[in-house]
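Tokens for chain A. Residues wanted.
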């Protein structure tokens, strides 16, 4: 940009009241006003266009309502000191600059076509009634004429985390990055209150500063003073000036929170054009001024604290599309990724580098890699088919389920680790809460909404709240959270891959029970997972020896150099290179070729034909959702190959992983059969449930078995089965069996 040195400004008298003689200590506002007015009139960008002069004309023609001043333009014409002063004392300069913009605003062009508003009517009334009527000849305040919002921005400004905002940032123009966790409804905020006197017709305009004000009551015109008959003032909503107002709650990003610390949040005030620029769950860059809240007045000022609450006045809110691409923007990582692909066998090497501190589970790690890569979301007119992969890990305690969840949450750029109870008071999805300060309804996002376009790792998935269990069905397929409560009707995005871990209801996995009975989740929810993998802790001498050796070896490593040598020996890829490789894979959107559609169709039909041979468990059945899961996994594999279309190998590997996951469920039943049991042989638990139900119905811990024994025999149970069950539960301390098996006494009370 450049500036015409011959341009002369006028109107700098607005800065003259703040002028100073000592230029060495205090900035000369009169000189700064002259410079800014010259910039308005004659600044030219690189194309030779008078950027700000044309912007003034667009505001006059009512084509735009935002006047954006870029501090980069000031730096381009070597006005570094002026730009720095504006950045360090933003609010004071904004008020003075608005006055200069008002003065230099041109008349509307002849070709301008716009509708008349209330301000036009007020100005016309003053022109018509200019013949001595004091009520109509009164001029409007200059701020009433403003139909624009002044925005100051700087493209190259560093984004500060919320934790770095200190006292030295108060009053300065800064840019912060965070995630929106709550947003109020947009409401009108009064800037100028208009009143009219019932006696003389005089109009009074009261400027409103801050969150509260005291309305005017009596007229202060000369006519009322002379007559000493002070008339009452009536509020005029049509003549008042309002603006849109919204309050946001912005929280620092999960990756910026130190371990063991509570995430910090800040109140953000959005007005006019900055409202409705983000929803809960969006990651945004907010440019604005860090300000203290207004001091208390009246009796409240007597108890005012020396510690001031602060807020962030937003001038500009932009969506931050953070993704894996940021991790391979450097040339070094790009080179490492190219070396990885040239070495071949990318799929095996990357999966082996997933959670390298955990021994075994090679196929599970491959599934986790495909979850991170994902498949592209496909839109068919009004129907959207999700591309995110959902995985649920089930099994005994101590098989490293939570550790794998933690590792995935540390790898993904946008990931949230939480438990089934929810990481906040709103649970996993979203809720409408009451703002503790204003008492208004506040829309707060849960963990799934906050992890939009990322991964949500949910531990203890089986212990989620009942309300979340109902609404999570929508999240896992439609990938939205619908809210209709307290007057707020909206739908939030939850485009997230869910990695869940569930522990058995009875402490360890019970092979005599189904998956639904073990983890206490409905079939309709489990069917929404692409992969259900059962991890069992079974004694095996060879595996136990290998596992113990691996764990002991890891604990012997005490220095960083030894750890790096061990990783190099095992060919473990660095985590930044993994992110870069996944980021590059996400740039591809492979399709299904026509030649492969018949192969997929035939394979799906064959899988459905063997449905009767499977275990009588809904989680192992082949459903149409299984076909979509195979396509998603195949697309993720094709992405890793940087291919434009899916190959037969991708489909075969996806089907193999699906069968391995189902095999893990079937093997639990087969191991029971190998021990001489039957997968239908669940009579001890059924007998226990009937006796327990009788205890609950009577309300006493001692249950007489005469009536229960008759009920059990009607259901087909034999006497030896009943006695075996009574003895088994007596041995483990669940109840005490009476003489001749005539009664049982529950120990747990």
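Reply:
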């Amino acid at each position: 940009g450049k500036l015409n040195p011959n341009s002369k400004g006028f109107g700098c008298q607005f800065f003259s009241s703040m002028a100073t003689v000592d230029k060495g200590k205090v900035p000369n506002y009169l000189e700064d006003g002259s410079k800014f007015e010259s910039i308005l009139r004659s600044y030219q960008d690189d194309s030779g266009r008078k950027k700000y002069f044309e912007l003034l004309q667009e505001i006059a023609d009512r084509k735009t309502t935002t006047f954006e001043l870029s501090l980069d333009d000031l730096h381009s014409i070597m006005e570094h000191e002026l730009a720095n002063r504006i950045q360090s004392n933003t609010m004071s300069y904004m008020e003075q600059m608005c006055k200069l913009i008002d003065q230099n605003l041109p008349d509307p062009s002849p070709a301008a076509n716009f509708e008349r508003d209330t301000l036009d009517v007020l100005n016309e009334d003053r022109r018509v009634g200019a013949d001595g009527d004091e009520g109509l000849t009164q001029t409007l305040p200059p701020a009433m004429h403003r139909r624009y919002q002044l925005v100051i921005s700087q493209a190259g400004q560093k984004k500060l985390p919320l934790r770095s905002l200190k006292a030295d940032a108060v009053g300065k123009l800064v840019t912060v990055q965070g995630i929106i966790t709550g947003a109020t409804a947009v409401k009108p905020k009064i800037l100028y209150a208009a009143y009219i006197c019932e006696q003389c017709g005089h109009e009074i305009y009261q400027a409103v500063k801050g969150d509260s004000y005291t309305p005017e009551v009596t007229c202060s015109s000369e006519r009322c003073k002379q007559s000493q008959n002070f008339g009452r003032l009536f509020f005029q909503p049509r003549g008042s000036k309002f603006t849109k107002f919204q309050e946001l709650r912005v929280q620092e990003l999960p990756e910026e929170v130190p371990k063991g610390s509570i995430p910090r949040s800040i109140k953000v005030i959005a007005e006019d054009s900055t409202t409705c620029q983000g929803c809960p769950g969006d990651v945004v860059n907010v440019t604005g001024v860090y300000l203290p809240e207004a001091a208390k007045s009246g009796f409240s000022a007597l108890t005012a604290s020396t510690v001031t609450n602060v807020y962030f006045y937003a001038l500009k809110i932009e969506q931050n599309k953070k993704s894996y691409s940021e991790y391979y923007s450097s040339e070094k990582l790009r080179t490492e990724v190219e070396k990885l692909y040239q070495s071949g066998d990318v799929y095996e090497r990357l999966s082996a580098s997933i959670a390298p501190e955990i021994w075994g589970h090679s196929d599970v790690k491959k599934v986790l890699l495909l979850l991170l890569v994902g498949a592209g979301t496909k839109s068919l007119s009004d129907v959207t088919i999700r591309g995110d992969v959902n995985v649920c890990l089930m099994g005994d305690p101590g098989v490293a389920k939570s550790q794998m969840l933690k590792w995935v949450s540390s790898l993904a750029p946008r990931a949230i680790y939480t438990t089934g109870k929810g990481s906040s008071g709103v649970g996993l999805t979203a809720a409408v809460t009451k703002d503790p300060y204003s008492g208004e309804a506040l829309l707060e996002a849960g963990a799934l909404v906050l992890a939009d376009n990322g991964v949500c790792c949910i531990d203890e998935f089986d212990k989620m709240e009942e309300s979340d269990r109902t609404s999570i069905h929508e999240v896992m397929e439609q990938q939205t959270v619908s809210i209709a409560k307290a007057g707020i009707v909206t739908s939030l995005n939850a485009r997230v891959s869910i990695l869940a871990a569930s522990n058995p209801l009875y402490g360890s996995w019970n092979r005599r029970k189904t998956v639904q009975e073990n983890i206490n989740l409905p079939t309709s929810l489990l069917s929404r997972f692409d992969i259900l993998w059962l991890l069992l802790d079974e004694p095996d001498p060879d595996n136990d020896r290998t596992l113990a050796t691996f764990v002991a070896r890891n604990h012997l490593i005490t220095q960083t150099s030894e750890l790096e040598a061990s990783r190099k020996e095992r060919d473990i890829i660095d985590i930044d290179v993994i992110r870069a490789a996944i980021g590059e894979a996400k740039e591809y959107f492979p399709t299904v070729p026509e030649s492969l559609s018949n192969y997929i169709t035939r394979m799906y039909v064959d899988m459905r034909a063997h449905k009767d041979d499977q275990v009588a468990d809904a989680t192992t059945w082949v459903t149409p959702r299984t076909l979509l899961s195979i396509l998603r996994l195949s697309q993720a594999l094709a992405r890793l190959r940087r291919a434009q279309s899916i190959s037969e190998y991708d489909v075969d590997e996806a089907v193999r992983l699906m069968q391995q996951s189902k095999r893990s469920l079937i093997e639990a039943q087969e191991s029971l059969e190998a021990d001489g049991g039957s997968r239908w042989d669940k009579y001890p638990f059924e007998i226990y449930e009937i006796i327990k139900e009788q205890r609950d119905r009577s309300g006493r811990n001692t249950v007489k078995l005469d009536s229960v024994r008759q009920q059990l025999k009607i259901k087909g149970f034999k006497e030896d089965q009943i006695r075996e069950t009574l003895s088994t539960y007596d041995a483990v301390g669940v109840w005490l069996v009476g003489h001749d098996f005539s009664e049982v006494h529950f120990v747990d009370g």
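Confidence is low (pLDDT under 50) at residues 5-25, 612-616, 676-680. The longest strand covers residues 173-184.
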